[in-house]
């Protein structure tokens, strides 16, 4: 199963380097945590983009929005490390990926290396 971080979805939507890699993963379907879905929408809207169009495109790939559970929230809190640069949305994505035993797609290099994480660039 694929789980998409907002940075990967934005990479795809904006046609950035790595977009083709994200598109291939999207073709397999997958999920996005509700927190990352919100972050994606906020970034699109913040750039005066058309969220309805972007939303429709992502949903056409059968991307499902995954609810954030208490266990995800608590695990995200445990993943926090001072100075590491992982946002709350990043940590929720990692925690949700652990719970779902998913491959996590990101364009955020600050995540570093992990067997579960796939860097798209």
UniProtKB/TrEMBL annotation:
Residues 4-109 form the PIN domain. It comes from the Bacteria. Coiled coil: none annotated. InterPro entries: PIN-like_dom_sf, PIN_dom. Keywords: Hydrolase, Magnesium, Metal-binding, Nuclease. One of its GO terms (molecular function) is nuclease activity. The keyword Oxidoreductase does not apply. Gene3D superfamilies: 5'-nuclease (3.40.50.1010). This is PIN domain nuclease of toxin-antitoxin system. It comes from Actinomycetospora cinnamomea.
């Amino acid at each position: 199963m694929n789980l998409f971080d907002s940075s990967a979805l934005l990479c795809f939507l904006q046609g950035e380097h790595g977009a083709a890699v994200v598109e291939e993963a999207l073709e397999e379907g997958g999920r996005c945590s509700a927190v990352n879905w919100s972050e994606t929408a906020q970034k699109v809207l913040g750039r005066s983009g058309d969220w309805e169009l972007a939303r429709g495109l992502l949903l056409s790939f059968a991307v499902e929005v995954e609810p954030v559970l208490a266990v995800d929230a608590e695990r995200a809190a445990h993943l926090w490390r001072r100075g590491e640069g992982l946002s709350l949305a990043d940590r929720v994505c990692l925690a949700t990926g652990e719970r779902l035993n998913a491959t996590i797609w990101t364009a955020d290099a600050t995540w570093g290396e992990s067997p579960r994480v796939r860097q798209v660039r």
